[in-house]
């Protein structure tokens, strides 16, 4: 186990709410502060720790996909520009609903339970009753509270917050934030579709062709990720690589090294793009320490994207819409002009023009250098009106290309007539 993995394992073993510091981790595990810092950053990425204002970095319970869509009390503090009076260790908890304490005490408690936030003024009896029901408390009007209530909140990790705003404004701010969370577009990640691997679905680098055939017969698969003894991903082997092998040849000498791979927080859309352009069927999934934890197939990716595409609450970005009207072949790139792609004057919308370039330029760069591309500057020379239902062809002229950049001119034509032209400078990313 590497030092990085030891630190992540140590952090995972800590109790929820425990404070974490670079210096303490470095001292406890006898590693450099730089190594500790990088590991804590990775722990933050995978949801093991969180940095809370005026508290510091603490160990938190990793959220499920459902909980990610819910607000935490720490986020409520920022929304209402409030302060934390007590229960700081409970700031990473989530709330499902909020209640307003404008009724008699006996009526208020009927609406209280765990994962509820009570919004109330300077009513200490109601505040304490809410805490005893497992609810957090937000005190409006800038009021504080008693030491008894703060002590109870700290003992039970139930946040007690205070805001200068009145009850009506606070309720509106929180309601708006909860609504925005609910209508937010769902982004599908690799962690949602990854298939875990076992010894039957991987090949170790010291295995032979005989071992490969044995596993292929057992599983019915022809593609396997290749790992070393520590289960770090070192390559991939398919039926294409074994053609020239003999029974006793080692896989390590014939496998494809440095294969394309994904992590749990990689988007499924990014994987789809990668797998389709590169023509690959199997994508290994690694963790932050580069250990193999699973695989996804092209079928998994396309099925997941079709499923989310059928959800009525999911919107589409302009690039998603534009891509539907593009046809890319080895020889050319064509676009069908629909009303959706034009302005009220019949010209290509500038946003659509840029989206067309973004979607098609990747194809041109990948043909040339097999790299990702990020547009650095785009100067539109002119755009002419185009007829709805007509067809546009996109052509690229490479003006200059280096190791990390490319300078290109893009021309769009309709029936051999130029309708748009632009000059692009882009970065090439490995």
UniProtKB/TrEMBL annotation:
CDD domains for this protein: CBS_pair_DRTGG_assoc
Annotated ranges, domain CBS: 194-252, 255-313
Alphabetic keyword roster: CBS domain
Pfam families: 4HBT, CBS, DRTGG
Signal peptide, first to last residue: none
Alphabetical list of PROSITE patterns matching this protein: CBS
Keyword DNA damage part of the UniProt annotation: no
UniProt entry tagged with the keyword 4Fe-4S: no
Cross-referenced Gene3D superfamilies: CBS-domain, Hotdog Thioesterase, HprK N-terminal domain-like, Winged helix-like DNA-binding domain superfamily/Winged helix DNA-binding domain
Name assigned to this protein: DRTGG domain-containing protein
Coiled coil start-end: none
């Amino acid at each position: 186990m590497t030092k990085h993995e030891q630190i992540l394992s140590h952090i995972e073993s800590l109790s929820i709410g425990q404070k974490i510091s670079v210096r303490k981790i470095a001292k406890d595990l006898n590693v450099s502060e730089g190594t500790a810092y990088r590991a804590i950053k990775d722990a933050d990425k995978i949801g093991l720790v969180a940095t809370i204002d005026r508290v510091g970095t603490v160990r938190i319970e990793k959220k499920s996909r459902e909980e990610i869509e819910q607000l935490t009390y720490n986020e409520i503090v920022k929304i209402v520009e409030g302060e934390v009076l007590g229960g700081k260790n409970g700031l990473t908890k989530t709330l499902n609903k909020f209640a307003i304490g404008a009724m008699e005490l006996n009526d208020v408690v009927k609406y209280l339970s765990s994962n509820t936030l009570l919004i109330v003024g300077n009513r200490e009896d109601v505040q304490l009753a809410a805490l005893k029901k497992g609810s957090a408390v937000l005190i409006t009007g800038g009021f504080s509270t008693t030491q008894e209530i703060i002590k109870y909140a700290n003992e039970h990790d139930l946040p007690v917050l205070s805001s200068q705003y009145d009850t009506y404004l606070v309720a509106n701010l929180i309601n708006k934030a909860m609504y925005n969370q609910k209508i937010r577009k769902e982004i599908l990640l690799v962690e949602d579709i990854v298939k875990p691997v076992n010894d039957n679905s991987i090949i170790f680098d010291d295995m032979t062709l005989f071992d490969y055939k044995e596993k292929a017969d057992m599983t019915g698969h022809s593609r396997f990720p290749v790992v070393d003894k520590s289960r770090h991903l070192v390559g991939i082997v398919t039926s294409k690589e074994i053609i020239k092998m003999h029974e006793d040849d080692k896989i390590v000498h014939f496998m494809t090294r440095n294969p394309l791979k994904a992590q749990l927080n990689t988007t499924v859309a990014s994987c789809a793009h990668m797998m389709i352009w590169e023509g690959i069927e199997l994508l290994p999934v690694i963790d932050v320490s580069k250990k193999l934890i699973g695989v996804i197939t092209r079928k998994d990716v396309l099925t997941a994207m079709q499923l989310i595409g059928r959800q009525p609450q999911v919107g589409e970005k302009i690039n998603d819409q534009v891509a539907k009207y593009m046809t890319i072949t080895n020889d050319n790139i064509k676009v069908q002009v629909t009303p959706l792609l034009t302005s009220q004057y019949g010209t290509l919308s500038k946003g659509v023009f840029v989206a067309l370039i973004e979607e098609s330029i990747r194809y041109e760069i990948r043909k040339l250098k097999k790299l990702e591309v990020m547009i650095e500057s785009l100067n539109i020379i002119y755009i002419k009106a185009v007829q709805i239902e007509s067809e546009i062809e996109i052509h690229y002229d490479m003006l200059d290309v280096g190791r990390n950049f490319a300078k290109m001119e893009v021309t769009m034509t309709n029936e051999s007539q130029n309708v748009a032209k632009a000059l692009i400078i882009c970065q090439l990313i490995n």
